[in-house]
Amino acid sequence: MVKEKTHVNVVVIGHVDSGKSTTTGHLIYKCGGIDQRKLEKFEKAAAQMGKSSFKFAWVLDKLKTERERGITIDISLLKFNTQKYTMTIIDAPGHRDFIKNMITGTSQADVGLLVVSAAKGEYEAGVSRSGQTREHALLAYTLGVKQIIVCVNKMDLTEPPYSKARFDEVVRGVGSFLKKIGYDCATVPFVPISGWTGENMITATQRMPWFQGWKSRQREGNASGRTLLEVLDSIQPPVRTANKPLRLPLQDVYKIGGVGTVPVGKIESGVLKAGMTLMFSPAKVTAEVKSIEMHHQGLQTALPGHNVGFNIKNVAVRNLRRGDVAGNAQHDPPADVSSFEAQVIILNHPGTVKAGYSPVLDCHTAHVTCRFAELKEKLDRRSGKQLEDHPQTLMSGDAATVRIVPIKPMCVESFFTYPSLGRFAARDLKQTVAVGVIKSVQKDQGGKLSHKAQVCK
Amino acid sequence: MGFGDLKSASGIKVLNDFLSERSYIEGYVPSQADVAVFESISAPPTADLCHALRWYNHIKSYNNQKSSLPGVKKPLGQYGPAGVADTTSGGGDDDDDDIDLFGSDDEEDAETARLKEERLAEYAARKSKKPTLIAKSSILLDVKPWDDETDMSKLEECVRTIQMDGLVWGQSKLVPVGYGIKKLQIGCVVEDDKVGTDLLEEHILAFEDFVQSMDVAAFNKI
């Protein structure tokens, strides 16, 4: 049997005109992400219409039309293979609800691919104050996307075409703001490409002889190469968290005739085994796992990333609900928190945020109203240095450390110990008003089990 | 390389040491290198720093032929002994670290700013001619029933009755979860400005006889 390739999620970010869809399309088209039969059909049609020379563009356009009509489901999951990895690409939409989805959603991005247009005027617009480039990159950093790749796109449209001077200018500009956000530029590869003509995408181009190749400093030695595909193959695989304690936030709880109670959720860390005793928080219920199933197949052990259902003994459906977190009762069991300290960034709030502000927090599958009890300090986003002690108000663009109190029991963790249980989106006025990562948690003393709280300082 | 702060006594001291075994900053004839360093010194070195004073007076004598001296001026940091950085104020000016991320970029010089303005204006002009595309996203939803006996075709029927401006339902399939439970995976295309996931969730959860919860399985730009 062929060994399964490691799975990596890539989120493609960039300004509206950066050409990210074309770039994404090109990768998928060339790396076998499109159904072969469909591709042949389209290619034949393109040839018949005398569009062979623009085959790629034409096929992409057809696919886009198909997507708009929602004809195939599988097209909404963009997948392709590199030598080492199976990649799922998320082409980040400008939709206001996307950010929340990126935080609580099922597919947390491992790598950010920032596409910047080098074309005249487009680069300037993309990185300008109103451009999306900075905001996207900042969010990616805040949400723990530590690896970022920069594609300097549309090199065919610079003046003159394939200009080294323009590439250098863009690298300088983007490098400087990535540094301001917090990225270490020595680890960031910059690749000059054209998503349209395919320069440096899959194969190295002859048109930019001045390009010496990209470099990236990594933990295990340095990586270098010439094409975007090589960059994607050189990334560091996401760390598997199978050896950490179990965390499994519940999505749903079912009552199945003849079986009993079946909670369902995705394993964020650790392993789930039949026979294990689980602790649910904040429900404060313990139960033994009788059996596990995934896609209707029985499993003895389930691993991080698996979306599983499991059968538990002696617990009624009404005692559990979406937002509860299951963990091993013997190994750092989950507990609800009385308060937690988080670093937040205010995004789209129309006015000012004061102590007492109570938006709804979406964290893993939980959805709980929480009070900003104390605005502790206003921070410089890049350095994390304190700008102001106990600020009176916060505004859009501000970063701050805030003590937050959930108004009903809730189980969250510090971002450091369990990343996906430690990041959240704050929602108010039907939009995402803030995003945050949890620095430390104050576990509820009322919990039945005493244990060492894994608090990160 | 550099002399430290040439405006301070310590900087002049470094310069003095440097010149104790050299006639000029670079090479064996007066050059632009000497002019660059000379110009960054505010007052003649004191008499106890004899090497620096000797050099200072010598370069001063070239005062009216300064521009005709050979060589190209380089930043101060390129001259002097290795291992000493240039900290002369007004010297190297690439320290833009402290500007606010969303703040104005007023540290740029006028030329760069003008160039940027020009390019932006051209971009805006081109952009206004292009027909504005309606931004759309493709969203894949997981809709979960209450148990294995929920009528999934009825559930799907209900979901498809939801109609909104800017919403188009796409294909769907049933995905096995476990223990006989299936979830409905259904695609839709939304106009970004008109339809949000919150609104969809609200409408879908309203069919509370059939639907337990809804999750977003995939969210992409079209």
Strands, helices and their partners?
The complex is a heterodimer of chains A (457) and B (222).
Chain A: E1 6-14, H1 20-30, H2 36-48, H3 55-69, E2 78-81, E3 85-91, H4 98-104, E4 111-117, H5 122-127, H6 132-142, E5 147-153, H7 164-181, E6 190-192, E7 214-217, E8 222-225, H8 228-234, E9 248-256, E10 260-266, E11 272-273, E12 277-281, E13 285-294, E14 297-299, E15 301-302, E16 307-312, E17 325-328, E18 337-346, E19 353-354, E20 360-363, E21 366-379, E22 386-389, E23 393-394, E24 399-406, E25 423-428, E26 431-443
Parallel strand pairs in A: 1-3, 1-4, 4-5, 5-6
Antiparallel strand pairs in A: 2-3, 7-8, 9-10, 9-17, 10-16, 11-15, 12-13, 12-17, 13-14, 13-16, 18-24, 18-26, 19-23, 20-21, 20-25, 21-22, 21-24, 25-26
Chain B: H1 9-19, H2 32-39, H3 50-60, H4 110-129, E1 136-145, H5 152-161, E2 167-178, E3 181-191, H6 197-205, E4 211-221
Subcellular location (chain A): Cytoplasm
GO molecular function (chain A): GTP binding; GTPase activity; translation elongation factor activity
Organism (chain A): Gasterosteus aculeatus aculeatus (three-spined stickleback)
